[in-house]
Amino acid sequence: MSLLEVKNLGVRFQTQDALIYAVNGINFSLERGQTLGIVGESGSGKSQSVLAMMGLLARNGATTGQAFYKGEDLLTMKPVALNKIRGNRVAMIFQDPMTSLNPYLTVERQMTEVLQFHKGMNRKSARARSVELLDAVKIPEAASRITMYPHEFSGGMRQRVMIAMALLCEPEVLIADEPTTALDVTVQAQILALLRDLQRDFGTAIVMITHDLGVVAGLCDEVMVLYGGRVMEQGAAESIFYSASHPYTVGLLKAIPRLDADDAALVAIPGAPPNMARPPLGCPFNERCALASADCRETLAPLQAAAGHPGVLRACHQSVQAVAELSAGDVSHA
């Protein structure tokens, strides 16, 4: 049995104007010590898929499908039972460290509260454990700085505090939602190195949500590429990075700056993401894809094995060979 198994996850939002189809039929499994990267542009459904699993959707949101943690469905679990798992066995690092911490409470109070609620520790033991975790995430002089308020920390230090809070109860699954957003590249590298070290030490399974494929390359074992709330490509990170089999993945990879290429070689994906209040009839990427055919515009390709790419799934009507030729050329419309 997988540690975390998601089956046909869907997320909908009812707005005043329309029903928004944010996530459509996502499937994945996660084992202990494994890292899954969920990538895609803003609005592709990355964050909403994990917020649904954590029971943290907005009030107008609704879910379908199943999300099993050790055989228990998180989506149908009662709030009292979910609270015993959330923040304890399954923890989350939220996207914005500037707003995720309570500005009115000291770091000590926010951290000890987690341990007192989930582990039943007394205040003294909870404080000692909190200092230990702040030391683990390389907060200088943790024993004295734990009494500070969030505004007294830099953005990078606040992100480290968020990671320490998520790891207080030694969770088996850690969900990191854009943990390096708004941080400079030096701090980003430090945070990623920290996550690798903590995964090695604790054996934690990680779901890394990001739009940065460079982050994925440095941390993840498996990759799931989302677009328009659907999985475009899914499989081993090495296979997808070295031989992408979907035009959207090719577009994302070509948009990454490279040290061995001129800036002029960067190619932007033309157009804009689809309006999910009126999702396309066929492939959600068809209006931006250089290979789009009538089939792409009329029917949605099933997610199935990519020929010649063991362990990789793709949702595309075009041949793997055609995508390989596209990767070697230009992703803009012909």
Primary descriptors:
2 domains, Rossmann fold, four-stranded antiparallel beta sheet, 13 helices
Q: Any overview of this molecule?
A:
This protein is an alpha/beta fold and 334 residues long. It has two domains: 4-220, 3-Layer(aba) Sandwich (Rossmann fold), CATH 3.40.50.300; 247-328, no CATH class. The chain has 13 helices and twelve strands. The strands form two sheets. It has an eight-stranded mixed beta sheet, with helices on both faces. The chain has a four-stranded antiparallel beta sheet with strand order 2-1-4-5, covered by helices on one side. A hairpin with a 4-residue loop joins strand 1 and strand 2 (19-30). Helix 4 (107-118) crosses helix 5. The longest helix is centred in the middle third of the chain and has 18 residues, at 185-202. The protein is globular and about 65 Å long. The termini are far apart. The mean pLDDT is 90.
Report the CATH architecture of the largest domain: 3-Layer(aba) Sandwich
Mean pLDDT: 90
Number of domains: 2
Shape: globular
Q: What is the makeup of the main sheet?
A: 8 strands, mixed
Beta-strand percentage range:
15-25%
Which bin fits the share of residues in helices? 25-40%
Layout of helices and strands, plus pairs?
Blueprint lengths: L3 E11 L4 E12 L4 E5 L6 H8 L7 E9 L2 E2 L5 H7 L4 E4 L3 H4 L6 H12 L4 H14 L5 H4 L9 H13 L5 E5 L7 H18 L2 E6 L2 H7 L2 E6 L2 E7 H6 L4 H8 L39 H5 L5 E2 L7 E2 L5 H9 L6
What's the gist of this structure?
Strand 7, helix 8 and strand 8 (205-210) form a beta-alpha-beta unit. This protein has helices at 46-53, 79-85, 97-100, 107-118, 123-136, 142-145, 155-167, 185-202, 213-219, 237-242, 247-254, 294-298, 320-328; strands spanning 4-14, 19-30, 35-39, 61-69, 72-73, 90-93, 173-177, 205-210, 222-227, 230-236, 304-305, 313-314.
